[in-house]
Amino acid sequence: FSHQDPGFLNHVVNKKAEVVRVYLPPDANTLLSTMDHCLRSLDYVNVVVAGKNDMPTWLDMDAAIAHCAAGAGEWRWASSHPEREPDVVLACCGDVPTLETLAATDLLRQRLPDLAVRVVNVVDLMRLQPSSEHPHGLSDADFDALFGTDVPVVFAFHGYPLLVHQLTYRRTNHHNMHVRGYKEEGTTTTPFDMVMMNDLDRYHLVMDVIDRVPGLGPAHASLRQDMVDRRLRARAHTRVTGVDLPEVTDWGWPG
Question: What sign does the CA torsion over 208, 215, 143, 170 have?
Fold first, then answer.
């Protein structure tokens, strides 16, 4: 079944690891692959978190199937300088967090072109747990290969941030993991304004990168202020017009 309540995930992941599976596909093709897998499975509780609104399609079908089979992986096509060790990892889990993470990555490519950004997308939430705790969990070596051992990680998540910390607290780089997610903020407003209320928007993710990558903060205070100003403009536009700014709604991945 499908469920959108962020708090519901916390209840599910505390059940027996032998039967619980949680998937957050980032686009239509990964959703198709996920549902194909779930409908063929037996004796599991499969939770699939998917939105109802139109969203970009990030992966073609073959890539989506491979990504879902892996459960989590680097999107090298979105990463900047993937041949280098990353200066920061931007991780995402869920359709809206993925959209905002890729938009933030695009901003960082434009404004900080020398910064090495690794984009990691998680489809199977239980991949975050150690393999000793869940059958779908990543080994420590595989987790470290994705998220690094001593690099800042900014993680955009569909649910409550504490859940990601709960699943990853034993990992080597957990002390560098900063999670943005649902904070019980929101009202009847526009989609992007709702994201901003929970500090999960692209501008805030860029601010998190500036704050957490060593040496960026003092050198790029003006860029951080620009992100603050963009948030204010977006909120003011919503209050006046009742719709989101075109620079938000019209954004598309440049590739």
Answer: negative
Edge-to-edge order in the sheet of strand 153-157: 72-74, 117-122, 88-93, 153-157, 177-180
Q: How far apart are CA 105 and CA 118, in angstroms?
A: 9
The length of the chain is 255
The model's pTM: 0.94
Dig out the tokens for 185 from the structure. 């903020």
Give one word for 227, left, alpha or beta, with left for phi > 0 and alpha for psi -120 to 50: alpha
Task: Name the phi and psi angles at 151, rounded to 5.
Answer: -140, 145
Structural element, H or E, at residue 177: strand 177-180
List % helix, strand, coil for the chain (3-state, nearest 5): 45, 15, 40
pLDDT tens digits, 135-160: 999 999 999 999 999 999 999 999 99
